[in-house]
Amino acid sequence: MTTQESKRKLAAILSADVKGYSRLMSQDEEATVKTLKQHRAAISGLVTEHRGRVIDSPGDNILAEFGSVVDAVKCAVKVQETLKDKNAEMPENKRMVFRIGVNLGDVIEEEGRIYGDGVNIAARLEGLAEAGGICISGTAFDQVKNRLSLGYQYLGKQTVKNIPDPIRAYKVLTEPESAGKVIGEKGPRRTQWRWAAVTIALLVLGAVGLVWNFYWRAPKIEPASKEKMAFPLPDKPSIAVLAFTNMSGDSKDDLLGDVLAEGIINGLAKSERILVIARNSTFTYKGKPVKVKQVAEEMGVRYVIEGSVQREGERVRITVQLIDALTGHHLFSERYDRDLKSLLDLQDEITMRVLTAVQVKLTGGEGARISAEGTKNLDAYLKRLQASEQITGTLNKERVQRSMQLSEEAIALDPEYADAYSILGVAHVILVAIGASESPGESLRRSLELGKKAVALDESNSTAHANLAFTYIFLRDFGKAMEEAEKGVSLGPNSAHAYWTLGSVFHYTGRRQEAIPCYQKSLRLSPIPVNSQLLTFLAGAYRDLGQYEEALVTYKKIFPLYGPDHAMAHFGLAVCYAMMGREDEARAEGAELLRIDPNFSVERFMKNLPLGTEKDRIAEALRKAGLK
Fold it and tell me: Which overall architecture, per CATH, does domain 226-371 show?
């Protein structure tokens, strides 16, 4: 960024987002998107009316800039009034409520976009606002306090993520009776105390302050509620590790934060004395101004770890915070300045610090497993991380081949890296599963070779055993598949992937009743499924047990997560409806499947599936759905 390309200026920034957007999407994706578009259009119109401009609107967020703080706050008030009227016409469970933050601060403008702490503070204030409310910074308050017929409640100095100094925050009060009032601010008082009395009082207050700070200090973070948690808290420590924020200003360094977070997750997950949420669930919050309270309640955990990483050449500065979400208190907050090459070593150090803080006592074996590392080569680790991301979510041949290429590059950097061999091996299986392998037999042979290599390099690697189990499933060696899947669960008691694998072995051996608890355990460890097919497997198990309604509900949960073009969801619905005798609905789902994959063939698809007698029943159902 050069001086010619960018300029600094003072601006009023408005940041708004939807409270509970993920919940709304999971309930009704199409209606939520429609409502969001309507609300966003209304907000954009009001921004223009108040002489502002919308800078960006990613997801459910809207960022706008104004030349005047007065205009920005007036716009925020009008937005909340307008949306309140719109929501009043909707059912309560469909209402879309925004939170708004307003800040006056210095920003950098480049090519019509704005950056800097001025923007970041507005986003953090938005996170402090109540649903349907407005929160403004002290700099904004100083400009508007005597210029608008509003009231304000002082919220104190707030410590917000990635901003070094606390910021003054004010809640905007729009009720007519609050106009002109400022609640919570206290000015200096004149006293006639003698100096001796003052000295004694200060000493007493200082002592009391120390006690309060270390024992009964008021939380700076809004505590989470046990009653509002999506899952009951387990009888052992439960933790969600958020992706570390990249503070370097260079998007190329984003993966460094992912490396740290994933390494801590993997280290913690090896102990059966703790529950750790999988990365694919916690990383959904990446880049969003999310509250600890929200993470804890949505993931069903007591503790949340967040942090940041800033790279300067070959040095990195890392901050890590462990927060007890039920009290809002920090259990620790640490800063580390290290060489980039020692980043992987730091994962273990932080992991052990966390385990100590939440009072988890390890056996000797667990301690050894937690400190074990897959590679000392950071570049290889980064390649493997990218390879894993390519085969998470919706799959196609191009993504799988890209994963294979990245895995091979990781192996070239570290020929002893077990995880890289394991990812490459499972990619070969995926090619077979999605019908994209030119030679399924050769793909499975190569997968077995790579999977055995991974296990030989790292016998204690839970994921390597789980991935090898999938190879054995497709080779129809179910005895070996069960052996490897059980090893995966034993070595990874917090591995959502291992439980999903074990459930799959039960599934393919006809033990559907035993598969369901494994799938449910996987979803507890990762509320966002570790694999896009997990819900189709769970639904299939319900279907094969004759629990058709549960199967339909589960299949339909797939679309809010992965979009309307998830072929296997339409495939499953077509089969389920046909088996229920609802052939019109079955044909409608069959038509959707053909829309997504015009070349779909029952014979070609069924050929490589490791199913026994179920094959004929499913093929018959597909034909009833109009598929050939």
Answer: 3-Layer(aba) Sandwich (3.40)
